Here is the input.
Amino acid sequence: MKLLSALVFALLVFSAVRAYTEVSTIVDVQVQPDGTARVSERYSLFLQSEAEVEEFENLRKFGSNTVVSWRRFLPSMKYHLTGGVTPLDTRVSARRLFDIGARSAAIELDYYVQNPIFNATQTLGRTTTYTLLPDAIAFDRTENRVTNLPPTVTLEFELPENARVEKATLAPPVSSINGNNVMWVGPLAGSWTLSYKLEKQLGVEVSEYFSNAYAQAFQLIPTFLPIALVLLLAAFVYSKTARKQ
Here is the structure.
């Protein structure tokens, strides 16, 4: 009986310590022209006890500032965009938001997804179509592969400059779309689809053509150099022979 009472007491204490409120999570995906992405995730919290404030401060000041260490405090933190391999340039920072309230805090996770999260297909002329990979968004997924965006989460894609969003492909229904910015606000559930087109400027295409031609010509120099030397030598011998005649 005493053991049961001790376990119940421990559970109550643990629940009290883990009583913080996740106010919001903003996942900002800055898509690069090559389909890779720089991602910034901001978790806004309200710390409801002094124990939470103390744990947060200890982690912020003395912790290793890694995803693994902060997940012990905030289990919902993880890489929510993935290219199939561990992201690069991961940085975790935390701070108190005293301008909002004494117990308001934020944790920011920044990283670079080096594998493209969009599949690129060249369509007409200088136009390339980019389509979001099915497993790029790594929020919780059901057995039927339905992705769930929690109520406090905002997912925003900042597409490359001059990107033309294929509005007919957007799913689930977007919360807002402004130019090359597409935003979803939870709660939402569905299979995420997003496509856009990029048209390469004519000047860029011409510049790339001549750059490639120059590179190819430079690579061929070792092949033609012996032939050129033979021709020069033959011309020299011919000129000497012609003068003697």
Remarks:
- The radius of gyration is 29 Å.
- Helices lie at 2-17, 50-62, 67-71, 202-244.
